[in-house]
Specification:
This protein is about 35% helix and about 10% strand. The chain has an eight-stranded mixed beta sheet. Strand 5, helix 7 and strand 6 form a beta-alpha-beta unit.
Length: about 300
C-alpha cells in the first residue's frame, strides 16, 4: 500500500505540519568521507555549497520568524566557507544551533579548532558514530574513522560536552550497517554508554537511532546485494502509526544548499517538492503558509515510521 493511502486508513486527512520550530539547512554536499549508508551521497568530489547571499537570507528568516532552532547539516557542513559565520550570526539572534558532524572532520587541515569553536558558541553537537565496535564502524565509514571519532569525542568531553549541560550537548547517531532495522534505542544507548565509557572513558548525552532510507548510497548497496524489495517490504511491515505525531517533517523545513525548500532532508535528495501552494524557495519564505502545509510523502516515508521510527 502506498504511504499516502496508509495514512488515510488511520486519519481522515493527509499528513500536515503541526508547527514550524526548526530550520534545517543543508549547506553543501561536500564531505571528507564517503560513508556507505549516506543518503546524500556526499563526498570529497561534490561541489554543491550554499553561498553567502543565501546564508544571509537564512539568517533573515531566523531573525524575522519564531523559529527557535537552526539545524545545520551537509555533507560535512564545516567545509562550507561560510559555516562559522552562519553559526555565530544565528547565535547572536538568540537561536539554538545544532550541527551534525562526522567527527573525523576535526582532523582535516584548518579544522583543528572546531571543538573550541563549538564550545564557545554553545553549539549542540549531533555526531555520527555507526557503532561502538571499531571494525563495524570502519566498515561503514572507512579504515581509521573510528579511532579519529574517539579522539574527537575525548576532546569534546574535555571541553565539557556530554556531561548533561544544556550549553554543550553531545548526542550520537546510530544507523544500522546493513539491510535491517535498528534495535530498541534505549537498550542500544545503554550498550553505547557501557562500551564507550568502559573502554575509552567517553560520555555523551543521548543516542539517536535512525533507520536507513532506501535512497542514495544505501539504495545502491541494497540493489547490489539484491535486498531492495525485501528491505522495502520490511519497512512497510514495520509501520508504526504511533510515530506519526513525532515525525520531523511536521516540525521543520529543510533548506537545500541553493535555497530551495523541502519537507525533509530525504525529500530534498529525491527532489520531492513542497506542496505547490507553498513557497518553494527561502527567498519567498512565508511562516504561516509553511507551518500549516500539506506534507509531500512517498514510499520512502515508511523508513521514518518503521518500528520506533526516526523522530
Amino acid at each position: 500500500m502506498r504511504f499516502r493511502d496508509r495514512i488515510l486508513t488511520i486519519q481522515p486527512e493527509p499528513l500536515v505540519s503541526d508547527r514550524l520550530e526548526i530550520l534545517q539547512v543543508n549547506v553543501g554536499y561536500r564531505c571528507n568521507m564517503s560513508c556507505k549508508h549516506c543518503h546524500v551521497e556526499a563526498g570529497p568530489h561534490r561541489r554543491e555549497e550554499m553561498k553567502r547571499d543565501t546564508i544571509d537570507v537564512v539568517l533573515s528568516v531566523l531573525r524575522e520568524n519564531d523559529i527557535h532552532t537552526l539545524d545545520i547539516t551537509g555533507g560535512a557542513p564545516e567545509l562550507n566557507p561560510h559555516f562559522k559565520y552562519l553559526v555565530e550570526e544565528a547565535g547572536k539572534i538568540g537561536r539554538h544551533v545544532i550541527v551534525r558532524t562526522n567527527l573525523t572532520i576535526f582532523f582535516e587541515a584548518g579544522m583543528e579548532d572546531l571543538p573550541e569553536f563549538y564550545r564557545g558558541n554553545s553549539v549542540e553537537v549531533v555526531a555520527s558514530l555507526p557503532h561502538y565496535v571499531e571494525g563495524d564502524a570502519d566498515r561503514v565509514r572507512g579504515s581509521g574513522a573510528f579511532q579519529k571519532s574517539i579522539k574527537a569525542l575525548e576532546e569534546l568531553n574535555r571541553l565539557g560536552y556530554g556531561t548533561g549541560s544544556d550549553n554543550c550537548k553531545l548526542n550520537l547517531v546510530y544507523n544500522p550497517p546493513g539491510a535491517f532495522l535498528a534495535p530498541l534505542q534505549k537498550a542500544l544507548e545503554e550498550d553505547y554508554r557501557k562500551e564507550l565509557l568502559g573502554k575509552f572513558g567517553v560520555s555523551f548525552d543521548n543516542l539517536f537511532v535512525f533507520v536507513n532510507m532506501p535512497i542514495g548510497r544505501f539504495r545502491e548497496y541494497l540493489v547490489r546485494s539484491r535486498n531492495l524489495e525485501k528491505y522495502r517490504e520490511k519497512l512497510v511491515s514495520a509501520f508504526n502509526p504511533e510515530t506519526l505525531t513525532g515525525l520531523m517533517c511536521r516540525y521543520l523545513i529543510s533548506v537545500r544548499w541553493d535555497g530551495m525548500l523541502y519537507d525533509c532532508d530525504f525529500n530534498q535528495i529525491l527532489g520531492l517538492s513542497l506542496d505547490s501552494e507553498c513557497p518553494q524557495h527561502i527567498m519567498d519564505f512565508n511562516y504561516p503558509e509553511l507551518s500549516r502545509r500539506k506534507i509531500a510523502v512517498y514510499d520512502h516515508c515508511y523508513g521514518c515510521t518503521a518500528g520506533q521510527g526516526s523522530t
